[in-house]
Amino acid sequence: MSLRYALLAVLTAGPLTGYDAAKRFSGSVGHVWYAQDSQIYPELRRMEKDGLISGEQVRWGPKSTKTQYRITETGIAAFRAWMNTPIDHAPVRDTHHMQAAYFEWAEPEQARAILGRHIEYHNEQVALFTAVRDGILNKTDPAIIRRLDKYPEHEHARIVAYKAYTYEGMITRSQAEIDWAIKGLHLIDHINTPPSSGLVRATANTSSP
Known about the structure:
By secondary structure, the protein is mostly helical. Helices cover 59% and strands 9% of the residues. It has a 3-stranded antiparallel beta sheet with strand order 1-3-2.
């Protein structure tokens, strides 16, 4: 997936300046497709050059203007075509599972600390995604409010359902990572617990000659 399709997805909810696009990107599409602001602005200009979006100068403050972008019919067609195209899975690059596969090279306490950070991160992700999902279902999330305002009411149910479904998947994925890391902690404890050594007691032969 290229950045432009993520930006087109954001712009299907209405026109945005580059600043607003970057801000809204991080709060919605950015949960599934990360991009820095320094990538977003040049891509918007390329998309305008390719006719996917159009830009116009709008008032910004008392003495300045900014470029506001809106998706064009060409952009809508390109986004719809992408949405109807099966996407190949990218090759796996999973540094955390790669590292875990070689924990025999790590000190047990360091391996525990690594998994502890993994659990902490994914707990934060679960909390974030749950809050966003609940905001979508309750129609209180800023991104969903803006999107629903753009579309007729008879389309609201499916818009909400698909967005909530996506966040449910991300919650499940993060929870699976938490469960995996907890199993790893148990494994480290099991592997590094010395076996109980039973004392072999020799029976002394006390018979007298």
